[in-house]
Amino acid sequence: MGSRPKLVVIGQGYVGLPLALRAAEVGFDVIGFDLDGAKIKRLEAGESAIEDVSDERLRAALDDSSYLPTVDPAALTGFDVAVVSVPTPLAGGNPDLSHITAAARLLAAHLVAGATVVLESTTYPGTTEELVLPLLEDGSGLVAGRDFHLGYSPERIDPGNPDWRLENTPKVVSGIDDTSLAAVTAFYDRLVAETVPVSSPAVAELTKLLENTFRHVNIALVNELAIYAHDLGIDVWAAIDAASTKPFGYLRFTPGPGVGGHCLPVDPSYLSWRVRQSLGVPFRFVELANDVNAHMPDYVVRRLILALNQRHLPVNGQRILLLGLAYKRNTGDARETPSRPIAEQLVELGAEVVLADPHVDDRALPAGVTRVDATPELAASAVATVLLVDHDEFDLEALAAAAPYLLDTRHRVSGPQVEHL
Ligand SMILES: NC(=O)c1ccc[n+]([C@@H]2O[C@H](COP(=O)([O-])OP(=O)(O)OC[C@H]3O[C@@H](n4cnc5c(N)ncnc54)[C@H](O)[C@@H]3O)[C@@H](O)[C@H]2O)c1
C-alpha cells in the first residue's frame, strides 16, 4: 500500500462494507476487519452478501488492492482513520455493547498519535465519550483530543434503496472537541456529498435514535389504526392515501406485519434504556410502539385464522403459502423479521407452511418450513397465501388470481379473494 491514507473499518456488514468500498474508491487504502472468518473468505473471493454492493464493485477494489478484507488484527497497524461498525444488539432487553467494547480495545492496541477514530454503530447517547474514549485511552496510553481524534457519525443507509445511497445522503458528524470534529468532518467530506456537523457525540448519537424512534412510533400508529379501522369496517389504506395528499404536516407511513431488521426492533430500546437508567422513568412512546409493533405478527395470524374459519377451514393440516421472509422488500436481511414468528405460529398450529423468498438463503428458514417458488400453481394448491414482503420478483397479480384466499399485508394487490390488513 502506498501513500494513500490508511482506513480501518471494524465490522464488514451492512454498514461497514459499503463504507469500506466507498472509501477505497475515493483514495483510501482500506482494511476491512471482521471476526467472521467465513464472511471474510467470501469477501476475499469477491462475493458480496449485500444487495447494495455488487460483486463487480467489490472485485474492482480487491483487484487494485485498495480494499483488503481480513481477520488478522496485525493488519490494523498504522491506521490514519478507523471506523467502528459492529452490531449493537439487545441482551435480555438491555443494550449489549460487548462488540463495541471489543472493537475499541482492539483499536487501542494499534492507535498512534494523530489518528482518528469514529464510532458508527447505533447506540445510546453517551457511548462514545463514556465507553469508547476511556477504552482507547487506557489501551493506548494516549490522550483523546490531545493525541488522537474521536467522534461519532450515525449511519443512514437504507438497504435496497437505489435513490438514497451512502454518498448522496447527508451525514451527521461529531467530535469530542473542535479538532476532532474537524478531523471527522474532513474524513467524511471525502466520502459523501454533504456533512452535517453537530456540537457533540451525544447529539449525533441521539439524532440517530430520534430518526429510528420516529419511524418506529409512526409505524406503530398506523398499525394500531389498521387494526381498529378493520374492526370498524373502514378502509385504512384509503384513509392513508387521502391523508398523504396533504402537502404539509403529514408523512406517509403504512401498516405491515411488524417491524424487523437491525434498527427498528432494537434501537428505540437503547434510548428507552438510557432514559430509564439515567432518569428512572419509562420512555412511554417507545414502550408503547414496541408493544404494538411486536404484536403485529399475532394479529396477522389471527386474521388468517378468522378468514379460514369463515371458509369452514382449520389451520391444522392445511397448506399455507407465505410470501417473503426478509424484513423488507428486495433485501435478503431476515434479522428480527416478523415473517419468522408468523411462520413459527402457523407451524405450531399444525399448518404445512411453505415459504417463498428469492433473496434469503436457506439458513434463515424457520424450523418446519419448506422453501418453494412462488408460482400460481403453488398458490392454487394452498388454502391461503399471505403476502408479507412485496419483493419485485413476486408476480402478485398472477398469485392473487390463483390463490383461493390471499391476505395482503402490504396493500399491493386486489381481487375478490384478497383481503388487506
Ligand atoms: N443495517 C442497517 O441498515 C443499519 C443502518 C444504520 C445503522 N446500523 C447500525 O450499524 C451497526 C452495524 O450494523 P450492521 O447492519 O452493519 O451489522 P452486521 O451484523 O451486518 O455487521 C456487523 C459485522 O461486525 C462483525 N463484528 C462483530 N464484532 C466484531 C468485532 N469485535 N470486531 C470485528 N468485527 C466484528 C460481525 O461479524 C459482522 O460481520 C449497528 O449498530 C446497527 O444498528 C445499521
Describe the structure.
The protein contains 14 helices and 16 strands. The protein has helices at 16-25, 37-44, 55-63, 98-110, 127-140, 178-189, 201-232, 236-243, 267-279, 284-294, 296-310, 339-348, 376-381, 396-402, and strands at residues 6-10, 29-33, 67-70, 81-84, 90-91, 94-95, 116-119, 149-152, 171-173, 195-197, 319-323, 352-356, 370-371, 384-387, 406-408, 418-420. Strands 3-2-1-4-7-8 form a 6-stranded parallel sheet, sandwiched between helices. It has a 6-stranded parallel sheet with strand order 13-12-11-14-15-16. The chain has a two-stranded antiparallel sheet with strand order 5-6. The radius of gyration is 23 Å and the shape is globular. It starts with 5 loop residues before the first strand and ends with a strand. Nicotinamide-adenine-dinucleotide is lined by residues 10-16, 33-36, 39, 85-88, 99, 102-103, 120-122, 155, 157, 159, 262-263.
Name some characteristics of this structure.
421 residues, globular, alpha/beta, binds nicotinamide-adenine-dinucleotide, six-stranded parallel beta sheet, 40% helix, 14 helices
